[in-house]
Amino acid sequence: MLSDIEIAQQAKIIHIKEIAAKIGVDANDLYYYGKHKAKLPLHLIDEEKLKKSKLILVSAINPTPSGEGKTMVSVGLNDGLNLLGKKSIVVLREPSLGPVFGIKGGAAGGGYSQLIPMEDINLHFTGDFSAIEKANNLLSAIIDNRLHNKTDLDIDPRTIVWKRVIDLNDRALRHIIIGLGGSSNGVLREDGFNITPASEVMAILCMSSSLEDLKKRLGDIFIGYTYDKKPVFARDLKAETAMTILLKDAIKPNLVQTLEGNPAFIHGGPFANIAQGTNTILATKMGLSLADYVVTEAGFGADLGAEKFMDIKCGYAKLKPDAMVLVATIRALRHHGGAKRSEYEIPSLEKVEKGFENLAKHIENAQKYHLKPVVAINHFPHDSEEEIQFVQNACAKMGIKAVVTKSFVQGGEGAKDLAQAVIDNIASGQNNFQALYNWKISIEQKIHTIATQIYGARDVEYAPLAKRQLKTINDLGYNELPICMAKTQKSLSDNEKLVGRPQDFVVTVREFEFAAGAGFVIPILGDMMRMPGLPSSPANERMDISPEGVISGLS
Predict the structure, then answer these.
(1) Statement to judge: residues 141 and 257 lie in one domain
(2) How many Å apart are CA 103 and CA 226, to the nearest integer?
(3) Whether pLDDT at 104 is above 80
């Protein structure tokens, strides 16, 4: 079979104005980025129409390092729905260059269920990530300029929590010293870089409901304290207007297409292990305004992206999913059943039976939100019929339908059974979404609810630093914000080595951050960090470009 990029490069790509016409968008409303990409104006959002459309959330079990194909299944499901005569749009996040050049690769789908133009989407695309970087780093520059010029704010540099960002994996930038070289080069202080998807500016873009709301949220970014212990926000530096100007185009959702010529929105890109892991509220609402069905995904396992989608995004956007799809692979079930990486492709009913406990927990979690999920078994050539049959039977015993999807090799045709199962699931009236917790309960209660109900933990412990920071958050009045856990994606627990369904474990909150502008509190569990490093054999080593500019090795 051809590689993902070879399939994408051989695809017949349609002019973007024809894709727009399929969803009733006039060509004059498009902001063109070449012939195959465009941005859409916010006036296309219709609050009344979107209430009548159906929102389908795609999530997954805890993944292996390579991922289990949520994006690919989302694209395939969207194509399958369109093949069944439904007006459907898939709404996804933008890829980050960190994973593109790291381990995981791009985020445009795979095989015959991809978004195109694949190279553009996975690289610079329409410049949204660049605009987010510039807005974030402009604020950093403004902060250091205030320190250098000793303005009346009198900021204590030791309290500054705002960091610079770059959209690359670069461990050397996690902790740095700036201002070296004498007094003309600024104030000497500690600083550091996060990866761009972890920037609060990214989170704010994804949570904003309008350009005006974006500006207000940017102004609410917490910077640090003055020497007399008064909190300092971006609005105190008069930074929010300039930051908004840099983001005036980035706030508009991006329109592209699937390999089968169906419309797709791709907008925003926060990671789900260190941020909220969902695309923008604006893109989701625009999709619901222009189609009858919207397929969207939330990052990593359902314990991360899906939990944050339902407890944070749905709360702010006043949205509710009408159906939920849980993606599982036989190889991931083998992994959770104890298989080593070298054994992922070796059939083992015993390991699948043991590993099923991870999928069972995610099904139970979906039911806590009053949703009855459909399980999508993302098919691989090395899956045995015996293993597949076991998963389907085990799901059936829980009252859950499990459908094999082969969209990687068959595109939308391979996802038609899944699409029909989702349509039937919505029509059954068995989904009545409710959030897991009330935002008004204490921060400790919210964390305890997520840890015990979703992760399966016995209890939560707080490190001394976390206890001090929690008091600060409460003192600042942010106790009624929702919770955005920073946790490993490899386990239901905060210990990546505990695969399957861990029992009798305690979650430890090491420290807290809070995103006052985005509107959530961030407990950091275990060894999570907001700037990844490259692996020993990064993806860039397998890439090439021809004299004619044709890229290979991108995935």
Answers:
(1) no
(2) 41
(3) no
Q: Which of 3-7, 235-239, 318-322, 367-371 has the lowest mean pLDDT?
A: 3-7
Q: Domain count for the chain, please give it.
A: 3
Domain co-membership, 237 together with 383: no
pTM for the model: 0.95
List strands edge to edge, sheet with 459-462. Answer: 459-462, 506-515, 520-525
> Could you tell me which residues come within 8 angstroms of residue 353 by beta carbon, excluding any fewer than 6 positions away?
337, 390
Q: What whole-number distance in Å separates Cα of residue 264 and Cα of residue 258?
A: 7
Give the three-state DSSP class for 77.
helix
Tell whether 538 is covered by a domain.
Answer: no
Instruction: In whole angstroms, give the CA distance from residue 366 to residue 374.
Output: 10
For 477, residues 6+ apart whose C-beta sits below 8 A from its C-beta are none
Whether 211 and 161 map to the same domain: the answer is yes
Domain ends where: 379, 395, 427?
427
pLDDT per position as a tens digit, 5-15: 999 999 999 99
Which CATH number is 261's domain given?
Answer: 3.40.50.300
Domain final residue, candidates 244, 271, 288: 244
- 53 with 164, same domain: the answer is no
Residue 105 has pLDDT above 90, yes or no: no
Q: Which residues pair with 293 in a beta bridge?
A: 54, 88
CATH at residue 145: 3.30.1510.10
Alpha-carbon Rg for the chain in angstroms: 23
Which residue shows structure tokens 């595109």?
411
Q: What are the φ/ψ torsions at residue 77 (nearest 5 degrees)?
A: -60, -40
User: Do both 262 and 240 map to the same domain?
Assistant: no
- Amino acid at residue number 46: D
Give me the mean pLDDT over the 440-451 stretch: 98
State the first-to-last Cα distance of the chain, in angstroms, to the nearest integer: 14
Q: Provide mean pLDDT across the span 482-497.
A: 95
* pLDDT tens digits, one per residue of 247-287: 999 999 999 999 999 999 999 999 989 889 999 999 999 99
- Which DSSP string do the residues of 122-173 spell out, in sequence order? HTTTTSHHHHHHHHHHHHHHHHHHHHHHT-TT-B-GGG----EEESS--GGG
Structural domain includes residue 537: no
Enter the tokens of residue 342. 């070298």
User: What's the pLDDT score for residue 307?
Assistant: 98
Stretch 502-523: mean pLDDT, rounded?
96
The domain in which residue 197 lies consists of 128-244
Distance CA 484, CA 507 (A): 15
Is it true that the peptide bond before 117 is cis, omega within 30 degrees of 0? yes
What number is the average pLDDT over the span 202-230? 97
